[in-house]
Amino acid sequence: MDAGTSGTIGQTAKVGRYRWVVVALLFAATAINYVDRQMIGVLKPTLSAEFGWSESDFAGIVFWFQVAYAIGYLSFGKVVDALGARLGYTVAIVIWTISHMAHGFATGITSFAMARFGLGVGESGNFPAGIRAVTDWFPQKERAFAIGVFNAGANVGAIVTPLLVPLLVLWFDWRMAFFVTGLFGIIWLAVWWAVYRHPTEHPRVTPGELAYIQQDPADPVEQIGWSRLLVVKETWAYALGKFLIDPIWWFFLFWLPGYLFERYDLDLKTFGLPLAAIYLISDVGSIAGGWMSSKLIKAGRTPNFARKATMLLSALCVLPIWFVQSVDNVWIAVLVIGLATAAHQAFSANLYTLPSDVFPRGAVGSVVGIGGTVGAFGGMGMALFAGYILDATHSYEVLFAICASAYLLALLVVHVLSPRLAQARVKAA
Question: CB within 8 A of 291, min separation 6: which ones?
Answer without folding.
Answer: 145, 148
